Amino acid sequence: MMVTSTYRDETIKPKYRKRKRVKTKKVKNQPSLFEQPKVKQFVMKVGDSKNLKKVSNIKTNTTTQVEEKLGKIIFWAVIAGVFGFLYITHVFNTQTALAELSQVQAEYERVNRTYEYQALNYERLSGPAEVYRRARILGFTDSSPADHVIILER
Q1: What is the per-residue burial (b if ≥16 Cβ within 10 Å, else e) of 51-72?
Q2: Which pLDDT does position 152 carry in this prediction?
Q3: pLDDT digits (tens, 9 = 90+) for 49-64
Q4: Cα distances (angstroms) measured from residue 15 to each of 7, 18, 93, 98
Q5: What gap in Å lies between CA 55 and CA 41, rounded to an integer?
């Protein structure tokens, strides 16, 4: 004999283990992943200075975190901009100094060539060959090697 049962029949009930339900706590005011965070707004009466500190904290944590990250990004962007500006200014100043140095070196080389030319000209004009040539023009005669010997009489 075969026993068949249905739930309606309830002659034979199948044995099932009861599962425990896990209760999940629902957090109030928790935004989902796709929702924008909401900003609480308060209306303050004129002259109400007691709630002044409460009004300064009207934003939720998510918006303050976003603003802090945005503030950090802006801060580091400004720092990077300042360093970039300083680097570019340094490069331009270096190029200007290099151009001035090249100009001074060219002027030094020109003055040095002029000095060496004048020194060579002086050596040529005051050398023995020039002195003997001028002496001949003026009428002086060249002495022989025997003229240099001095004989002393006793």
Answers
A1: eeeeeeeebeeeeeeeeeeeee
A2: 81
A3: 555 555 455 555 567 7
A4: 12, 9, 90, 95
A5: 9
Write down the residue that tokens 């909401």 correspond to.
38
- Say which residue the tokens 């020194």 belong to: 119
Domain boundaries, given as residue ranges, for the chain? 52-139
Joined together, the tokens standing for residue 71 give: 């503030």
pLDDT band at 43 (very low <50, low <70, confident <90, very high): low
CA distance linking residue 26 with residue 32, whole number of Å:
12
CB within 8 Å of 5: residues ≥ 6 apart: 11, 12, 13, 14
pTM to 2 decimal places: 0.42
pLDDT for the residue numbered 40: 54
User: For residue 16, what are its two tokens?
Assistant: 């099932």
Q: Distance between CA atoms of 109 and 56, rounded to whole angstroms?
A: 72
Query: Of 58, 64, 73, 63, which is closest to residue 35 (Cα–Cα)?
Result: 63
DSSP annotation of 150 reads -
Phi-psi region of 10 (alpha: psi -120 to 50; beta: other; left: phi over 0): left
Q: Would you say 55 and 42 are in contact if contact means Cβ atoms under 8 Å apart?
A: yes
Q: Which of 142, 123, 122 is nearest to 132 (CA)?
A: 142
